[in-house]
TrEMBL record:
Superkingdom of the organism of origin: Bacteria
EC annotation from Swiss-Prot or TrEMBL: 3.1.-.-
InterPro entries the UniProt entry points to: MBL, RibonucZ/Hydroxyglut_hydro, Xnuc_lig_assoc
Protein name as annotated: Ligase-associated DNA damage response exonuclease
GO function terms (MF aspect): exonuclease activity; ligase activity
Membrane-traversing stretches: none
The keyword Ligase is annotated on this UniProt entry: yes
Organism: Xanthobacter aminoxidans
Keywords, sorted A to Z: Exonuclease, Hydrolase, Ligase, Nuclease
SUPFAM superfamilies attached to this UniProt entry: Metallo-hydrolase/oxidoreductase (SSF56281)
Amino acid sequence: MRPEDLLCPSPKGLYSPAGDFYVDPTRAVPRAVITHGHSDHARAGHAHVLATRETLDIMALRMGPGFAGATQALPYGEEIIINGVKVSLHPAGHVLGSAQVRLEKDGLVIVVSGDYKDAADPTCAPFEPIRCHVFVSEATFGLPVFRHPPAAGEVDKLLASVRIFPERTHIVGAYSLGKAQRMMALIRRAGHDAPIYVHGALTNITDYYESCGMDFGEILPVKGAPKSAFAGAVVIAPPSSMTDLWARRFADPITCFASGWMRVRARARQRGVELPLVVSDHADWDGLCASIRATGCEELWVTHGAEDALVHWAHTRQLRARPLHMVGYGEEDEEAVVPAPEGEAPAP
């Protein structure tokens, strides 16, 4: 069997001709396998969706319970056969419930990584390298300049600033699914036990993480709290809210943003970020290269990001590689899926 018979790019996303299903399709399709709940991978309107239980729950929270005609939860490591194709899901280390999709037929194995990271994260299962013939990798940070420091050190920078400026509010911009909860967990691990205040757009997802057994300590809504409570406090909010009317309730705030893009100083300046925090839920250059090597793949397909650099790297390692030039993946558009609570600014 040729790899293209098992998986190939199409206008609607990655399609399995042998199995007659799509992985993270960009348009509504009869059958979809979804890697995780971010809006550039998980969309409403499919007739049937297969994903981890956590991803299905998150999709329902973000899009409403009728986001698909039918759903099926598949635990990590369990196998299902779809039209003769063996399909299983394996941890991607990106956000809660995120999965790599392993496809096998006639001895050929292809793994679609979705978004992934190999760095430790207390809020999701760690990335699991899966042996395969073809590995489909993202390349969000697929340039050698992107080498992320340990996230714990970035949180130490945040808390050092809190100690230096105890009268100021530190507003941390973080995406509502995954990054916000990871920051909460890291802040607690660093010994900060004061209440953490959150924008209303983060509440539902954070509550779901807690229902899965995670303890973030005292998490309080910004709405309804007295202004005096915010002196010296850490507030976590969707990134766009930091420059919105919503942020004007805080006295002399210090704007922070937790993102791998904060490695690029020009991006921090463009966003008006005073304290950039290089915390990413995507693998950096070293993580991408190490993860690809760990799969033992003979061929690499790159779906989005800095495709050419990673393809060139693969060629220097005698791997067959090609960019897929997929359209529709990248930074998730949270505004499309996270309704703003009454009286609060919409999420970015």
